[in-house]
Design a protein that fits this description.
By secondary structure, the protein is α/β, with parallel strands linked by helices. It contains 13 helices and 16 strands. Helix content is 38%, strand content 20%.
Length: 429
C-alpha cells in the first residue's frame, strides 16, 4: 500500500509543481539512515510528506519530526501520512521553521526548505543535533545553475544561486562542522561535528613554532596548524583559502581539510600527500643547487594566474586596518604601484621551503599569498633575504636577483612600502 501510494504522491507533486526529493537523493539518505543507525529525523520543509514518509519506511524504529510553513501543503502531508499508517511515527508541525522552538535531539537533520534561509536553518537547529549526528542539506547544485549560471537569465534565480554559494562557503569554513559534498541528485552536503583535536596540542605532538603559529602532528599524514590567540578569524581564513588554492595548483604537498577553533585559537588541519612529512633541513643542499631550484620554483609560482585571490593591495590595506590619516603616506605609495594577476606567495623565502625525500622543493605558509605583479613577490623575497644576509646564508639577496635576472632599482617602489610596513607590523609582515 505504502509503495503504491508513494508513487501517487510523487506523481501529484510533479503535476502540481511541488518540489520533492530526487530519487538519487532518496537512495543516498536511505543508505545513510541504515549505515548510521538513525532513529530520529528532523526535516525542515515537509512539502506534502513524501520524504518524511520515505524516511519512516526505512525502518520501523525511525521517527520523524517535520516542519512546513505552508498550510495547504501541511494539510495534504497530514492526509498522506495518515493514509500510509505512519501517524504515530511522523509528527508534522505547521509553522515557520525559524520561529519554531524544538527541544528534542535528532540523529539526522534534513534541510530542504527555502534555499535563501539555509544558513539560518543550520544555525538555529544545530543545537538539536546529537553529538554523532549529521545535517544533510539538499539542492546545493540547484539544477546545475550553481556551477553554470548561464543556464538561467532570471535575476531572482541568479540572486538565489549567490545565496546558495554563500551557504556552501559557510559550510566549508565552519569552525564547528566538517562537511562533505556530493553531486548526488541535485547536490547534497553532509555536515558532522568536527573531531576534537585538543588532545593533540601537547609537547609530545609539537613539531615547530613560528612567529604566529605552532605545528602539531596528528598522525602519519595529518598536521594541525594552530594560530596564536591574537590572530583573527579573517587572517586564519585567508591562510585556509590560499592553502586550498596552492594545493589545487600542485604547488603544495598539504591539503587543507579542516578549519576549526580550539580554546580560543583558530587552526587548520592539513593532510600530507606522501607517507613521510617533507622536512626543512636545507643545510644538506649545495648552495648553488638550492639557489637554482629555489628560483625555478619561484618562477613556477609567479607563472600561475591567481585572479581568484585577493590583490596584494587589498592584503596590505587589510593589514593596515583600512584607510586612515596616520597611514596616508604608505597608502599613497601603495596606490601608485601596478596591478597584476600573478600568484604571489607573499613570504617566499628559504624558511618557508619544504624538501621531500627526493630533494624536490615545495612552498609552505600561504598566509600572505595574493595576486599581483611579479615584481611585488620578487621584491618581497629580496627584502626578506636581505634581512638575513650572512656568510652562512644558503641564499643571499643579491645572488637571488641575479638568478631571477632583475635589477634592484625596478623593485625599489615596493621595497619602500615594505619598509613602512616593517616599522608597524613586524609581527605579521
Amino acid at each position: 500500500m505504502s509503495a503504491e501510494f508513494l508513487l501517487e504522491i510523487k506523481s501529484l507533486a510533479h503535476k502540481n509543481n511541488v518540489p520533492i526529493m530526487q530519487d538519487a537523493t532518496s537512495e543516498f539518505i536511505f543508505s545513510f539512515i541504515k549505515k548510521h543507525n538513525v532513529k530520529s529525523v528532523l526535516e525542515i520543509g515537509t512539502a506534502v510528506g513524501y520524504s518524511a514518509i520515505q524516511f519512516a519506511l526505512v525502518d520501523e524504529s525511525v521517527k520523524v519530526t517535520t516542519i512546513e510553513i505552508d498550510i495547504d501543503r501541511t494539510i495534504q502531508a497530514i492526509k498522506n501520512v495518515e493514509k500510509c499508517g505512519l501517524k504515530s511515527r511522523i509528527k508534522i508541525i505547521n509553522n515557520d521553521a525559524l520561529a519554531c522552538d524544538i527541544n528534542e535531539k535528532f540523529d539526522l537533520i534534513f534541510i530542504d526548505a527555502a534555499k535563501a534561509q539555509y544558513e539560518k536553518f543550520f544555525e538555529k537547529f544545530k543545537a538539536n543535533l546529537n553529538p554523532k549526528g549529521a545535517i544533510i542539506s539538499d539542492n546545493l547544485l540547484f539544477h546545475g545553475i550553481v556551477e553554470n549560471q548561464n543556464l538561467t537569465k532570471s535575476y531572482s534565480t541568479k540572486k538565489l544561486v549567490r545565496k546558495i554559494k554563500r551557504y556552501v562557503n559557510f559550510l566549508k569554513e565552519n569552525i564547528e562542522f566538517t562537511t562533505e559534498f556530493y553531486k548526488t541528485g541535485d547536490g547534497i552536503s553532509v555536515s558532522k561535528f568536527k573531531t576534537d583535536y585538543s588532545n593533540f596540542i601537547s609537547e609530545e605532538n609539537f613539531l615547530e613554532e613560528k612567529e604566529y603559529f605552532k605545528i602539531f602532528k596528528i598522525d602519519q599524514k595529518c598536521l594541525l596548524k594552530l594560530f596564536d590567540e591574537n590572530v583573527s578569524k579573517e587572517f586564519a581564513l585567508m591562510d585556509f583559502r590560499n592553502s586550498q588554492f596552492a594545493y589545487n595548483q600542485n604547488i603544495s604537498k598539504f591539503m587543507p581539510c579542516d578549519f576549526l577553533k580550539i580554546s580560543g585559537c583558530f587552526g587548520i588541519v592539513f593532510q600530507n600527500d606522501d607517507e613521510k612529512f617533507p622536512s626543512r633541513i636545507l643545510n644538506e643542499f649545495d648552495k648553488n643547487i638550492f639557489s637554482d631550484k629555489f628560483t625555478l620554483l619561484h618562477e613556477k609560482l609567479l607563472s600561475l594566474n591567481a585572479e581568484s585571490l585577493a590583490s596584494y593591495k587589498e592584503l596590505l590595506l587589510f593589514i593596515l586596518g583600512g584607510n586612515s590619516k596616520e597611514n596616508s603616506s604608505v597608502i599613497r605609495k601603495l596606490k601608485k604601484l601596478p596591478e597584476g594577476n600573478f600568484f604571489c606567495q607573499g613570504n617566499f623565502c628559504p624558511e618557508n621551503i619544504l624538501i621531500d625525500e627526493n630533494k624536490n622543493l615545495f612552498a609552505s605558509n600561504f598566509l600572505l599569498s595574493c595576486k599581483g605583479p611579479k615584481e611585488f613577490d620578487i621584491a618581497r623575497t629580496f627584502y626578506i633575504l636581505s634581512k638575513t644576509n650572512s656568510e652562512k646564508s644558503i641564499l643571499k639577496s643579491e645572488d637571488y636577483l641575479i638568478k631571477m635576472e632583475i635589477d634592484k632599482e625596478s623593485l625599489m617602489p615596493f621595497i619602500e612600502v615594505f619598509n613602512e610596513f616593517e616599522n608597524s607590523f613586524s609581527d605579521i609582515f
